[in-house]
Specification:
This protein has 190 residues and is α+β, with helices and mostly antiparallel strands. It is built from six helices and eight strands. Bound molecules: coenzyme A.
Amino acid sequence: MHMHFFEGVFAHLPTIETDRLVLRPLRMRDADDLYAYARDPEVSRHVLWDTHKSPADSRQFLRAAIRQYRRGLPGSFAITLRDSGRMIGTIGFMWVNLDHKSAEVGYSLSRDYWNRGIMTEALRAVIAFGFDTLHLNRIEAQHEIDNPASGRVMAHAGMRYEGVMRQRLMNKGRYVDVAQYAILRSDPRT
Ligand SMILES: CC(C)(COP(=O)(O)OP(=O)(O)OC[C@H]1O[C@@H](n2cnc3c(N)ncnc32)[C@H](O)[C@@H]1OP(=O)(O)O)[C@@H](O)C(=O)NCCC(=O)NCCS
Protein backbone atom coordinates (compact mmCIF):
# COMPACT_ATOMS: atom_id res chain seq x y z
CA MET A 1 0.00 0.00 0.00
CA HIS A 2 1.25 3.49 -0.79
CA MET A 3 2.56 5.26 2.30
CA HIS A 4 2.45 9.01 2.39
CA PHE A 5 5.85 10.65 2.77
CA PHE A 6 4.98 11.87 6.31
CA GLU A 7 3.96 8.36 7.38
CA GLY A 8 7.31 7.03 6.25
CA VAL A 9 9.15 9.68 8.27
CA PHE A 10 7.12 9.08 11.44
CA ALA A 11 7.47 5.31 11.08
CA HIS A 12 11.27 5.73 11.00
CA LEU A 13 12.06 8.79 13.09
CA PRO A 14 15.73 9.68 12.73
CA THR A 15 18.19 10.35 15.54
CA ILE A 16 19.00 14.05 15.92
CA GLU A 17 22.07 15.23 17.81
CA THR A 18 22.50 18.66 19.39
CA ASP A 19 25.23 20.04 21.65
CA ARG A 20 24.02 18.26 24.78
CA LEU A 21 21.19 16.02 23.57
CA VAL A 22 20.31 13.07 21.41
CA LEU A 23 16.70 12.96 20.18
CA ARG A 24 15.68 9.44 19.11
CA PRO A 25 12.57 7.25 18.94
CA LEU A 26 11.05 6.17 22.25
CA ARG A 27 11.46 2.52 23.25
CA MET A 28 10.13 0.25 25.99
CA ARG A 29 13.49 0.35 27.79
CA ASP A 30 12.78 4.04 28.56
CA ALA A 31 10.09 3.00 31.07
CA ASP A 32 12.19 3.49 34.23
CA ASP A 33 13.57 6.88 33.16
CA LEU A 34 10.10 8.00 32.06
CA TYR A 35 8.45 6.94 35.31
CA ALA A 36 11.16 8.74 37.33
CA TYR A 37 9.87 12.10 36.05
CA ALA A 38 6.30 11.41 34.85
CA ARG A 39 5.28 10.55 38.41
CA ASP A 40 6.00 14.17 39.39
CA PRO A 41 2.75 16.21 39.42
CA GLU A 42 4.75 19.40 38.73
CA VAL A 43 5.78 17.95 35.35
CA SER A 44 2.26 16.88 34.33
CA ARG A 45 0.44 19.94 35.68
CA HIS A 46 0.35 21.80 32.36
CA VAL A 47 0.25 18.89 29.94
CA LEU A 48 -2.73 16.79 28.86
CA TRP A 49 -1.46 13.46 30.19
CA ASP A 50 -2.09 12.43 33.81
CA THR A 51 0.65 11.98 36.40
CA HIS A 52 1.91 8.41 36.13
CA LYS A 53 0.83 6.49 39.22
CA SER A 54 2.88 3.35 38.63
CA PRO A 55 5.54 2.01 36.24
CA ALA A 56 2.66 0.33 34.39
CA ASP A 57 1.39 3.80 33.37
CA SER A 58 4.81 4.58 31.88
CA ARG A 59 4.90 1.30 29.97
CA GLN A 60 1.40 2.02 28.67
CA PHE A 61 2.52 5.49 27.52
CA LEU A 62 5.48 3.96 25.65
CA ARG A 63 3.36 1.23 24.08
CA ALA A 64 1.02 3.93 22.74
CA ALA A 65 3.94 5.96 21.37
CA ILE A 66 5.44 2.91 19.65
CA ARG A 67 2.03 2.02 18.19
CA GLN A 68 1.91 5.55 16.69
CA TYR A 69 5.30 4.96 15.01
CA ARG A 70 4.11 1.65 13.60
CA ARG A 71 1.10 3.37 12.06
CA GLY A 72 3.21 6.21 10.66
CA LEU A 73 1.29 8.75 12.76
CA PRO A 74 2.80 11.93 14.23
CA GLY A 75 4.69 11.19 17.42
CA SER A 76 7.44 12.21 19.80
CA PHE A 77 11.16 11.79 20.19
CA ALA A 78 12.80 10.75 23.44
CA ILE A 79 15.04 13.55 24.73
CA THR A 80 18.21 11.88 26.02
CA LEU A 81 21.44 13.26 27.44
CA ARG A 82 24.37 12.81 25.12
CA ASP A 83 26.70 12.12 28.10
CA SER A 84 24.79 9.50 30.07
CA GLY A 85 22.10 8.30 27.63
CA ARG A 86 19.49 9.04 30.28
CA MET A 87 16.00 9.71 28.90
CA ILE A 88 14.80 12.98 30.48
CA GLY A 89 11.83 14.10 28.41
CA THR A 90 9.87 13.96 25.19
CA ILE A 91 9.27 16.36 22.32
CA GLY A 92 7.34 15.82 19.14
CA PHE A 93 4.34 16.36 16.93
CA MET A 94 0.78 16.34 18.25
CA TRP A 95 -0.66 16.46 14.71
CA VAL A 96 0.40 17.27 11.17
CA ASN A 97 -1.93 18.74 8.55
CA LEU A 98 -0.97 17.57 5.06
CA ASP A 99 -3.15 20.08 3.19
CA HIS A 100 -1.77 23.10 4.99
CA LYS A 101 1.74 21.79 5.71
CA SER A 102 1.27 22.76 9.34
CA ALA A 103 1.87 20.95 12.61
CA GLU A 104 1.83 21.39 16.38
CA VAL A 105 4.72 20.49 18.67
CA GLY A 106 4.54 19.61 22.36
CA TYR A 107 7.11 18.65 24.97
CA SER A 108 7.86 17.84 28.60
CA LEU A 109 11.02 17.56 30.65
CA SER A 110 12.09 16.03 33.97
CA ARG A 111 12.08 18.67 36.72
CA ASP A 112 15.72 17.81 37.54
CA TYR A 113 16.73 19.47 34.26
CA TRP A 114 14.56 22.59 34.12
CA ASN A 115 16.06 26.03 33.47
CA ARG A 116 19.24 24.90 31.73
CA GLY A 117 18.11 25.71 28.19
CA ILE A 118 17.51 22.05 27.40
CA MET A 119 14.01 22.38 25.95
CA THR A 120 15.03 25.44 23.94
CA GLU A 121 17.85 23.32 22.42
CA ALA A 122 15.46 20.43 21.71
CA LEU A 123 12.75 22.67 20.23
CA ARG A 124 15.20 24.35 17.85
CA ALA A 125 16.22 20.92 16.57
CA VAL A 126 12.62 19.76 16.12
CA ILE A 127 11.69 22.98 14.30
CA ALA A 128 14.63 22.40 11.91
CA PHE A 129 13.42 18.81 11.41
CA GLY A 130 9.89 20.09 10.70
CA PHE A 131 11.02 22.53 8.04
CA ASP A 132 13.95 20.64 6.50
CA THR A 133 12.77 17.01 6.67
CA LEU A 134 8.95 17.27 6.84
CA HIS A 135 8.93 20.36 4.56
CA LEU A 136 6.33 22.08 6.74
CA ASN A 137 5.37 25.71 6.28
CA ARG A 138 4.02 26.48 9.77
CA ILE A 139 4.82 24.95 13.16
CA GLU A 140 2.58 25.82 16.10
CA ALA A 141 2.90 25.36 19.83
CA GLN A 142 0.55 26.17 22.69
CA HIS A 143 0.99 26.64 26.40
CA GLU A 144 -1.35 27.30 29.29
CA ILE A 145 -1.02 30.94 30.24
CA ASP A 146 -0.06 30.04 33.82
CA ASN A 147 2.95 28.11 32.42
CA PRO A 148 5.05 31.04 31.20
CA ALA A 149 8.35 29.10 31.14
CA SER A 150 7.02 27.19 28.13
CA GLY A 151 6.29 30.48 26.35
CA ARG A 152 9.91 31.54 26.97
CA VAL A 153 11.08 28.31 25.32
CA MET A 154 8.89 28.98 22.27
CA ALA A 155 10.11 32.57 21.95
CA HIS A 156 13.77 31.52 22.35
CA ALA A 157 13.29 29.00 19.53
CA GLY A 158 12.03 31.74 17.21
CA MET A 159 8.29 31.18 17.52
CA ARG A 160 6.08 34.25 17.56
CA TYR A 161 3.23 34.92 19.99
CA GLU A 162 -0.12 35.04 18.17
CA GLY A 163 -2.64 35.49 20.98
CA VAL A 164 -4.66 33.78 23.66
CA MET A 165 -7.42 31.24 23.06
CA ARG A 166 -9.77 31.52 26.01
CA GLN A 167 -10.70 28.26 27.78
CA ARG A 168 -9.39 26.33 24.77
CA LEU A 169 -8.74 23.20 26.80
CA MET A 170 -10.13 21.32 29.77
CA ASN A 171 -7.11 20.17 31.76
CA LYS A 172 -7.45 18.12 34.93
CA GLY A 173 -10.93 19.36 35.60
CA ARG A 174 -10.63 23.04 34.75
CA TYR A 175 -10.89 25.13 31.60
CA VAL A 176 -7.60 26.76 30.75
CA ASP A 177 -6.62 29.76 28.63
CA VAL A 178 -3.96 28.87 26.10
CA ALA A 179 -1.33 31.05 24.41
CA GLN A 180 -0.65 30.29 20.76
CA TYR A 181 2.80 30.57 19.20
CA ALA A 182 3.97 29.70 15.69
CA ILE A 183 6.99 29.92 13.41
CA LEU A 184 6.77 30.04 9.61
CA ARG A 185 9.28 28.59 7.17
CA SER A 186 9.98 32.20 6.05
CA ASP A 187 10.63 33.44 9.62
CA PRO A 188 14.18 33.86 10.90
CA ARG A 189 15.47 30.83 12.82
CA THR A 190 17.32 31.33 16.09
C1 LIG B 1 8.29 24.24 30.29
C2 LIG B 1 9.56 23.43 30.15
C3 LIG B 1 9.46 22.59 28.88
C4 LIG B 1 10.77 24.32 30.07
O1 LIG B 1 11.91 23.55 29.76
P1 LIG B 1 13.37 24.09 30.16
O2 LIG B 1 14.38 23.20 29.56
O3 LIG B 1 13.40 24.32 31.62
O4 LIG B 1 13.36 25.48 29.39
P2 LIG B 1 14.60 26.44 29.13
O5 LIG B 1 15.61 26.26 30.21
O6 LIG B 1 15.03 26.25 27.71
O7 LIG B 1 13.90 27.88 29.24
C5 LIG B 1 13.09 28.17 30.37
C6 LIG B 1 12.74 29.64 30.38
O8 LIG B 1 11.60 29.85 31.23
C7 LIG B 1 11.96 30.77 32.26
N1 LIG B 1 11.17 30.43 33.44
C8 LIG B 1 11.32 29.37 34.26
N2 LIG B 1 10.38 29.41 35.22
C9 LIG B 1 9.60 30.48 34.97
C10 LIG B 1 8.45 31.03 35.59
N3 LIG B 1 7.89 30.47 36.65
N4 LIG B 1 7.93 32.17 35.06
C11 LIG B 1 8.47 32.74 33.97
N5 LIG B 1 9.54 32.24 33.33
C12 LIG B 1 10.10 31.13 33.82
C13 LIG B 1 13.43 30.61 32.41
O9 LIG B 1 13.99 31.72 33.05
C14 LIG B 1 13.85 30.50 30.94
O10 LIG B 1 13.72 31.72 30.24
P3 LIG B 1 14.95 32.76 30.06
O11 LIG B 1 16.05 31.97 29.42
O12 LIG B 1 14.38 33.82 29.17
O13 LIG B 1 15.31 33.25 31.43
C15 LIG B 1 9.75 22.47 31.36
O14 LIG B 1 9.69 23.24 32.51
C16 LIG B 1 8.72 21.38 31.44
O15 LIG B 1 8.86 20.34 30.81
N6 LIG B 1 7.67 21.59 32.24
C17 LIG B 1 6.65 20.55 32.46
C18 LIG B 1 5.90 20.15 31.22
C19 LIG B 1 5.40 21.31 30.45
O16 LIG B 1 4.92 22.27 31.02
N7 LIG B 1 5.50 21.24 29.13
C20 LIG B 1 5.07 22.30 28.25
C21 LIG B 1 3.62 22.24 28.00
S1 LIG B 1 3.11 23.55 26.92
